[in-house]
Design goal:
This protein is α+β, with helices and mostly antiparallel strands and 224 residues long. The protein is built from 5 helices and 9 strands, in the order H-E-H-E-E-H-H-E-E-E-E-E-E-H. Helix 3 crosses helix 4.
């Protein structure tokens, strides 16, 4: 004879499922954060590869920081990489602007959107548009201090004495902002900020790994 579950038994089963779910959800959340961090590292490694390919093609010179090839001068070299075909546009943004390459956009992207909404008064749509247009990775500008007479000129790779210690890009408050200090960096990946360096490698950094002080005096930002 078929026996039906009692209400008490059903409630017990539901309670057990709820307990198991509560135990699994934190692990799933951590796995998702880790997956996005790995994706971000991959993005920045591709960005570093594009930059180093440019260096090879231009006899050891990094692109000039003040980009003037096609359009208004812009203080970021991702524009130069797109202009030269080293990166490609990701299509159109949420408000139909030209989107930067999708590898320039971190899948976590919390700090940049929050920054534009909280401090710049952007709507969420406009904040997302800025992330798609400029990318979420802040790019280094301190390396340009090599020549006071030509602040934004191209940099020969040997001018960086310690390229493996000098950050090139990092998770930050956006591609329109220069990587000039820890306050620009974003530690969105469970307290970790991903960064690439001028020798092409990438690292996952905690706040304690980043030197604090005047960026123009720190090898992490200047390479010297």
């Amino acid at each position: 004879m078929r026996r039906e579950f009692t209400l008490i038994e059903l409630l017990v089963v539901i309670a057990i499922i709820a307990v198991l779910a509560s135990m699994l959800l934190p692990a799933l959340t951590k796995a998702q954060i880790a997956a996005r961090r790995v994706k971000c590292v991959g993005n920045q490694k591709q960005l570093a590869l594009a930059l180093m390919t440019y260096v090879d093609d231009y006899n050891g010179f990094f692109p000039p920081l003040k980009v003037v090839s096609g359009g208004d001068p812009l203080y970021r070299y991702k524009r130069e990489l797109i202009t030269g075909g080293y990166l490609r546009s990701g299509g159109r943004t949420i408000t139909n602007d030209i989107q930067t390459d999708t590898i320039c956009q971190c899948p976590e992207n919390l700090t940049m959107v929050d920054y534009y909404m909280r401090t710049q008064g952007y709507t969420q749509t406009n904040a997302i548009n800025a992330a798609q247009k400029f990318g979420t990775y802040s790019t280094n500008t301190q390396y340009a201090h090599h020549d006071p007479s030509n602040y934004f000129g191209p940099l020969f790779i040997t001018a960086l004495k310690f390229p493996a210690k000098c950050a090139m890009t990092a998770d930050g408050i956006g591609g329109a902002h220069h990587l000039q200090g820890i306050n620009i960096m974003a530690f969105d990946h469970g307290g970790i900020c991903n960064a690439t360096f001028f020798d092409g490698h990438a690292e996952s950094l905690r706040r304690s790994d980043v030197p604090v002080g005047l960026s123009k005096n720190l090898v992490f930002f200047t390479g010297r």
